[in-house]
Amino acid sequence: MSSAKTATYSPPKNKFAVRIKKQKLLLIMILPIMIWFIVFHYVPIYGWIMAFTNYIPGKPLLSADFVGLQHFEFFIFKSGDFRNILVNSVGLIFLNIFFSQTLAIAFAVFLNEMRVTRLKRLVQSASFIPYLVSWAIAANVMFAILSSDGGMLNDLLMRFGLVERPVQFMMRAEYAWTIMTIANVWKIFGFNAVIYLAAIAGIDGELYDAAAVDGAGRFKKIWHIVLPGMIPTIAVLLLINFGALLNTGFDQYFLISNPLTFSRLDVIDTYTVRFGLERGLLSYSTAVGIFKSVVSLILLTVANQFMKRTTGNKLF
Amino acid sequence: MNDPIDSARGGIYLLPRIWSIESFRHVFSNNDILRPVFISVSRTVIGSLTHICACFVAAFCLSKKDLFMRKTFMMIIVFTMYFSGGIIPFYILLMWLGLLNNFLVYIIPTMLSAFNIILIKTYIEQLPDSVIEAAEIDGANDFVVMSKIAAPLCKPIIATVILYNAVWQWGSWFDNYLYAGANRSLTTLQYLLVRMLRESDAIRQIAQAGGSVSAARMSPESIRMSVAMIIIIPIFLLYPFMQKYFVKGIMLGAVKG
Q1: Which helix (H) or strand (E) holds A273?
Q2: DSSP character for A274?
Q3: Coil, strand or helix: which one is A54?
Q4: Among A39, A134, A283, B91, who pairs with B171 as Cys (CB 3.0-4.6 Å)?
Q5: Phi/psi at A275 (5° precision)
Q6: What is the ipTM of this complex?
Q7: How far is residue A144 from each of residues A167, A169, B34, measured CA to CA in Å?
Q8: What is the pTM for the complete model shown?
Q9: What CA–CA distance (Å, rounded) separates A254 from A311?
């Protein structure tokens, strides 16, 4: 025992030093990168102290009055906004996930069945463009289509005599979710379809031949081979989407909402920005932000566990 | 010298109002579409180039299996994909760092992304070991191996990451609105368009003040459309050539997932 120890023994300090010396360049290169990650992703967590105090900008963070969970309490129970914000965030995201994923799956299967390669490429390219176009442009397009003042949709409806006066689509709260969901789906489904196409391309070709021998037609092949082959990808994409459930984004809601539809489009991110940066209630909106981050992490962990048990796919 | 539109914008409560010289400049730049074009192009070019350099260095280092503290580094990086400190603490951080209303706010906070690092790292790990080992035996140091051997082999993934990042940089306006909204000389094309969409004032200013002779004769609507065209044309021109990289990029990401 002791002889073996002495035989392989070398002072750990020395070994450590040798290793460091050998990797000197690598470590010099990675050091600034790790500092960047700590500064931009971990230092903000230190700022969470704000949520438990009444922070005043310009003063040291630790000198602010400690108020405990008061801001959280206010947001959840007293602000009167909590329910609306939650309903909007979760509702819009669910609609978005549901429609963009089902449409993308259907579209990918459809493209895969298409035999005219050139047309297939053209359709795929066209569906992918919205993903590359910024929300500022997308909002402009939507206004051009939906505007009550010379918008395309209203023009059409008027021409066919379906409506007498232009409908103010963008100004009506009852249309807000529909318009938002269409915009979201339009922008993302082409991107998701490419992921699903990749999944379909990864399916073993022999399976099709085997199914053909068994007499399976096109629809049977889709049902028994293509769709099951996509399940791992569907699981991972759903997982990522659920993890980001409260991560609604900001751009589209800010651009498409207006004072009349605002109450239906106010999501947690817009709420945080509005209270924090526009009204200057830093401590309060930090608390709202923490609520979002923590709930997101819990949702992601739960979804991850669920997927691991049911389909064997996981993110971490 | 705060104009009313500006005062209504985000961030003003937190800012020392010391940009009096700036406000003279913004009168000129606000009337000009060329300035936002310049800002948009420079943030896209500088931003995506720094992004790819930083991400590639990170990915190369982390692809070394025996790197000191590799697991810890990876954990620190991967965790940021699923968790964020929130927008307000981030804003305060940018304030502390003096990045607010500074051109660098477009570049530095977006320099690295966990997702792209992992994407490139996976790609490097798939390269045949023999090439890199041969160079190491020849006595090349890590930096030389990275820039002379690994980087050329990674061209496809580098192109993909650059493209996605460039499209993102070109298309984003939210950071402009939040972190550089008070400094009109840093207005990007996207934010100019957003402002035109939301405030009829912004567009009227440009139409009336006539930064350029032709602008003075244009209707607000056509100014808005011309800005939209400036934004959209580069993407449409590049798209046919870049399509394979875009699709390849998603597929690589999907395989990783």
Answers
A1: helix A268-273
A2: I
A3: strand
A4: A134
A5: -75, -40
A6: 0.83
A7: 13, 11, 25
A8: 0.82
A9: 37
Per-residue pLDDT tens digits for B99-130: 999 999 999 999 999 989 998 998 898 888 88
Alpha-carbon span B114 to B121, nearest angstrom: 10
| More confident call, B156 vs B10 | B156
Q: How far apart are CA A38 and CA B226, in angstroms?
A: 42
Contact by Cβ (8 Å): B246, A225: no
Contact B91, A276 (CB under 8 A): yes
Closest residue to A250, CB basis, from B9, B67, B174: B174
Interface of B with A in 123-162 (CB under 8 A): 141-143, 146
Angle at A197 between CA A239 and CA B119, to 5 degrees: 60
Q: What is the mean pLDDT of residues A122-131?
A: 86
To 10 degrees, what angle do helices B220-256 and B114-126 make?
50
Q: Which helix (DSSP H) or strand (DSSP E) does residue A66 occupy?
A: strand A65-66
Higher pLDDT residue, B207 or B166?
B166
Residue A48 in contact with residue A286, Cβ under 8 Å? yes
Q: Is A169 exposed, middle or buried (0-12, 13-18, 19+ CB in 10 A)?
A: buried
Is residue A145 within 8 Å of A208, Cβ to Cβ?
no
From B204, B57, B229, B220, select the one nearest B143 (Cα to Cα).
B57
Q: How close does chain A come to B134, measured CA to CA in Å?
A: 17
Indicate the residue of A134, A137, A282 with minimum beta-carbon distance to B88: A282
Task: Tell me if A250 sits within 8 A of B91, measured CB to CB.
Answer: no
pLDDT at B1: 31
Residue A31: half-sphere exposure toward Cβ, Cα within 13 Å = 7
pLDDT digits (tens, 9 = 90+) for A63-77: 778 888 888 888 888
Written as one letter, the residue type at B216 is A
The answer to whether B94 touches B105, Cβ cutoff 8 Å, is: yes
CB A111 within 8 A of CB A124: yes
Cβ pairs bridging A and B (under 8 Å):
204
The alpha-carbon gap from B157 to the nearest alpha carbon of chain A, in Å, equals 17
Which residues from B are below 8 Å from A234, CB to CB? none
CA atoms lying within 13 Å on the CB side of residue A144: 11
Residue B223 Cα to chain centre, angstroms: 25
Alpha helices in chain A (DSSP H): 2-8, 12-22, 24-37, 43-46, 70-73, 82-113, 117-132, 135-146, 152-159, 173-201, 205-213, 218-221, 227-243, 251-256, 262-265, 268-273, 282-310
**Is the separation of the CB atoms in A211 and A224 below 8 Å?**
yes
* DSSP 8-state code for residue B86: -
Contact at CB, A132 and B235, closer than 8 angstroms: yes
Q: Name the pLDDT band for B50 (thresholds 50, 70, 90).
A: very high
